[in-house]
Structures are given as structure tokens and as C-alpha cells.
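Protocol step 4 of 5: obtain the predicted structure for the target chain.
Materials: sequence only (see below). No template structures provided, no constraints applied. The aim of this step is simply to have a reference model before the mutagenesis design in step 5. Sequence pasted as it appears in the construct record:
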Amino acid sequence: MTALGAAPLFALLFLVLYLVGRRRDPRMLRNGVFLTAALLFGLATVAALLTAVVPGFGVLVAVVLLLVPLAVVVLGVALIANGFQMLRAEGRSLGNLLSLAAGVAVFVLPAVAIALFVSGSGTGFTLWDGTRIALAVLLVFVCGYFALSLLAFAVYSVVYGRTRHGVVPDAIVVLGSGLVHGEVPPLLRSRLDRALTVYRAERDAGRRPLLIPSGGQGDDEPRPEGTAMAEYLVANGADPDDVAPETASRNTRENLRLSRDVQTAAGRDGQIVVVTNNYHVLRAATLARRLDLPAQVVGARTAAYYVPSAFLREFVAVVVEHRWLNVLACTPFVLFTGFLLWESLQQR
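Step 4 output (C-alpha cells):
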């Protein structure tokens, strides 16, 4: 069976794996890998079928493939522009530089790979020739791996974020994101407003979930985030008896774990709805799963200019959290590079 002929089978296989994984637990990152693979093989199948039955469709496919480099250039320019916008709007920080750095990498990494391929010694096949080709191949493979990983993460972030989970929450946890001069800024306000929407819907249905605004006091903050968030919730209609702030956490993992402690201390041990911004939904969900919490995550809207850099920050965090899995996934590429180097030594 040809690779193209196998595409429908691979599409079906990955679709089944996705549906099974999604039913088992929608918070698993592997669901995004399966879904993205199913979509890619499905697109290949559709393209093959249309090429076979529609005259001239193959030419259209070829044109689309030729436009891929142009799309990459457009992506790089857009990321660089977004990086400068982030610096102007949010100030200089490592996190705010991510979209700019990614945009530069879109141009630099292919240029480095091409330079390695073409920079021959001109004196026959030398050790340098073998090394540069091996390094270029390694660069292509590793960049391709992380590009596909980012695509899978992006696809499933959108899918998970738009899923209606049907959870009846015993508690609504709102993740903190920093105060400005001790007050709730727009980014955090969007989370609190989304939590209030969920809370009011539950109250209208005759239930009283516990609202847990979660966040400790940062070095540059005059008071804990949870305290300011609780004030906002009460000021905007939440019953004070339904608000129990968590004020000791320093990161998302602690937000979730310590909020669960607040929930159980209040005599609640049921399901949780976690509220954050849309770019942060999938990572928060995977952390909740790793902490074995009965929680699903919903997202609030974020200013469009802020999303690319924030989303890249989330992807980097996920890569770091699963670093050994990523090292294992890249090991075959390194071994193949070693094989190419060995072959170059044999030819000397």
C-alpha cells in the first residue's frame, strides 16, 4: 500500500484514538496530537481524492504548496510586528519578547539550515561536509518536530476552550494574573467577569457554588491578588458568603492545589470549574489533571494583540514541563545525525 493510499487509514486510526482519549479525559495533551494527525491525514486524503476526480485540482494543490514559503514569511513578519506591539503596550520582559523572538527565528533558522547545506569545502567530501549536512538535517527535524507540536497544542487549545463540559460546579476557581497598583487590571477583570457569568447561571439554576479567587502577593504587589479579586466579585454582585479567597499561591499549580484546600475546608468536595484566559486554558487543564482534581477549565476573552506572545509562553511552559518526553522524542533525530557523521567519517 502506498503512503498516499494509507492516508485514509491513518486518518481513521488517529480519529479513533482522539475520540477514545477525549472520552477518557479531555484534558490530555495527547488528544491534540491525535486530532492534529487525523486532520492532516484527512486533508491529504481529501486532496488525493479531489486530484483523482477533479481535472486540474492537482495544479491547485501544487500552487498551494508553493505558497507555503510565502505563508511562513507572512507569519514571521506578523510575529515580529506583534513583538514590537507587545513591547510598546506591555513593557520589556522576557515573556513579552517571545513573539518577537519567534518571528526572528522563522527567518534565521531556515537561513542557517540552507547555509549549512550549501557551504561546501570545495575540496571533496570532508569531515566538515558530513558535519554540516548532519547538523542541517538535525535542525530541520527538530524544528519540524516543535512546529508540529505547536500546531497540535494550538489546535487542541481552541477545541478544548470551545468545549461545553457540562460540569455542575461545587466551586468556581478564578486564577490570578497580577495586580496593577493593587487593583484588578483588564486581563484579570475578564477572568472575574467570566466567573461571575458562570456563578450567576448556577444561582439561577438554584445552586450556590463557592467562588475562590486565587492568587498570592507578588514582590511588586501591595496586597494578595485573591483579596483584590474577592472585592471585585462582591462589588459586582457575588454574595459575600459565597466568596472564599485563596491568598498564598505563587503559580498556576499552587493556584489549583491551594484552592482545592480552600474548597474542602469549606465542606465542598465536588466538581470544579476553573476560570482563566483563553490562551491559558489547556495548560491549566493539564495541570489540574496531573493534580488529580475533578476540574475542567473555561476561558475568558483576551485582547487580540496579547494572545500570540502569551500563547507562546504557555507552549514553552508545556515543553519544559514535559522536557524528558521531548528529549525522548528528539532522540531518533540525534541518533540519525550521529549516523550521518559516522558515514562521513567512513568516506574519508
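Step 4 remarks: The two ends are 39 Å apart (CA to CA). The chain has a mean pLDDT of 91.
Proceed to step 5.
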